[in-house]
Structures are given as structure tokens and as C-alpha cells.
Specification:
Number of strands: 8
Strand order of the largest sheet: 1-2-3-4-5-6-7-8
Shape: elongated
Strand content: over 45%
Oligomer: single chain
Radius of gyration: 24 Å
Length: 134
């Protein structure tokens, strides 16, 4: 092999290595909650339990229904959620523009946690939901 071919082969290998090692990973993180619906109970300071449904969107959107998905608009809340390492946090605003914050943990096919008014995610009650089978 002459020097010109050797340099060309070496340069090709180096460029390939650089391209592969510098390639950006565009894969989205796995979000097991995306496009799922969960139903269960919602407790307000020991009163209840009352039915609640959580519908997680493809992105980070969430809709909370007091009751089921057929609940009237005044019984629906919209907001955004984060889900990292089995820990769920979300904040929703209801029909009357009141904000509620929730935190919970995904366990054996259920999410349970606490909620509060405004930015406080505890102090007002608890919730417990299980994934609905489609």
C-alpha cells in the first residue's frame, strides 16, 4: 500500500469514528405514563373517597377528571406533569382557575400520593389510582 492510500484509509477510519462517537442520541426518554388513563379515588382531608380519573397525554399534558372522563367541564382540571424515576409530580388548574399540585409514586400498577392547593403538593388529602385497561 502506498503512502497516499494509507493516509486516505486512516483518514476515512478517523472520520467514521468521529461521526459515530459524536452522533447525537435523539431518542426520547421512555415515558410509561404517556397516552394512558388511570382511575381511582381522591380524598379531601379525610372526606371521601370520591372517584377521580387521570388522563396522561403524549407530551407532558394531563387532565384530571373529578369522576370519570364524561365529567362536565367544571369537574375537569388541565395541567402538566413530570415523571422521573417512578416519581410523579403534576399541577393542574380547575374550571374556576384554582391551582392544585400533586405528588405521587408509581408502585405495583398503582400511583398513590398527596395533593395540596397552589404550589403545595400536600396538606389537603390523598389520591390513589390504577391504570385502566383499554
Amino acid at each position: 500500500m502506498n503512502l497516499k492510500n494509507f493516509l486516505f484509509a486512516t483518514l476515512s477510519i478517523l472520520l467514521t469514528i468521529c461521526f459515530v462517537s459524536c452522533k447525537k442520541d435523539n431518542a426520547a426518554p421512555d415515558n410509561t405514563l404517556a397516552n394512558t388513563t388511570w382511575s381511582g379515588t381522591f380524598v379531601v382531608k379525610g372526606n371521601g373517597p370520591d372517584p377521580v380519573t387521570l388522563k396522561f397525554g403524549a407530551g407532558n399534558d394531563i387532565t384530571l377528571f373529578f369522576g370519570d372522563q364524561n365529567a362536565p367541564a367544571e369537574h375537569q382540571c388541565k395541567g402538566h406533569y413530570t415523571f422521573v424515576g417512578g416519581k410523579l409530580s403534576f399541577t393542574v388548574t380547575d374550571y374556576y382557575n384554582e391551582k392544585m399540585s400533586f405528588t405521587g409514586t408509581l408502585g405495583d400498577a398503582a400511583i398513590s400520593g398527596t395533593w395540596g392547593h397552589g404550589d403545595a403538593n400536600n396538606g389537603e388529602g390523598t389520591f390513589n389510582v390504577a391504570k385502566k385497561q383499554m
